[in-house]
Amino acid sequence: MSWLRNPWGKPRFLVAVTTLYVVWSVIPVLIAVVFSFNNGRSRSVWQGFSLRWINGDPNTSLFHDPALVRAMEQSFKLAALAMVIATPLGVALAIGLQRWRGRGGTAANVLMLIPLVTPELVMGVGLFLIFTRLFGFIGRGTWAQAIGQVTFSISYVVVIVRGRLASIGKEYEEAAADLGAPPFQVLRRVLMPLLGPAIFSSLIVVFALSIDDFVITQWLSFDQTTETVPVKIYSSARTAPLPSLNALASVMVVVTLASLALAYVVYNRFARNQGEAADIGTIGGGL
After folding, report:
1. Torsion over CA: 150, 156, 160, 166 (sign)
2. What angle do CA 151, 153, 158 make, to 5 degrees?
């Protein structure tokens, strides 16, 4: 009976399941990273540590292979475009939906969530038809891939920012308005700083979604010049790839982990600054 009341207590079943899941998820990544430093061409037999497949081999290493370098550049280019476009649009849409009290608000909220629940294959096929039939002047390529990634990334930004809007409430905006601040100043000097952690989190989420996307990016790819890292890995894995492909995956893992670490540091900085501001406000009010 005690176990039924608290199944996640002793013997720490939840901790065990979580640990097994993390280990199961991390092991394949670690194996890929380890063999990117293999001295030989084998991707299954360890033949000694070497930087051959990263920068050592003048012909087949990662940074000497034009196709792999081009895939990295394309991935980062699309990620930058998606971050720059999707985040401001998502923030504006989140504020509008949060403040919308008129007719049609419910329908707009449902439409906003459609990209989250639509299978990515269906969205990829739909965008492919749009850019080949309706907007043929754009065609497939970098801009079509960027627009496709922005299309499904905006919903994630809206969800994150709306969660932050719901947590901070409207008290700060109302207080600023009562003190005579015009709406634009309220938005710029009160609301935007409070939304800082959510905005930065949205940037990191959009970056991760863009770097990792395969289906939509592959459907909207035009030729080898628009292949991203996931597309390149998929197309090369069906043949006999060299360990330089593991090196490419390792670089992307390092970039993703670095972005997460940066997000953690920046979020803590935001939280610390806002906590200090709240303490000062409390002391000022008491005085």
Report:
1. positive
2. 105
Of the candidates 170, 172, 123, the one whose C-alpha atom is nearest the C-alpha of residue 147 is: 123
Judge residue 84's burial from the number of C-beta atoms within 10 Å of its C-beta, 0-12 exposed, 13-18 middle, 19 or more buried: middle
Q: Which pTM value belongs to this model?
A: 0.82
Compute CA distances 48 → 37, 154, 244, whole Å. 8, 45, 15
Tell me the pLDDT tens digit for each residue of 166-212. Answer: 888 888 888 888 888 888 888 888 888 888 888 988 998 899 899 98
CA distance 192 to 125: 37
Neighbours of 274 (CB within 10 A): 15
Instruction: Compute the distance between CA of residue 74 and CA of residue 206 in angstroms, rounded to an integer.
Output: 16
d(CA 190, CA 100): 19
Angle between the N-to-C axes of helices 244-286 and 229-237, in degrees from 0 to 180, rounded to the nearest 10? 150
Q: What domains can be seen in the chain, in order of their start residue?
A: 66-286 (1.10.3720.10)
Contacts of 267 (CB under 8 A, 6+ apart): 197, 200, 201
∠ CA 150-154-156, nearest 5°, is 125
Sign of CA dihedral 66, 67, 68, 74: positive
Query: Considering Cα of 109, then 111, then 113, then 117, what sign does the dihedral take?
Result: positive
Q: Are 113 and 152 in contact (CB under 8 A)?
A: no
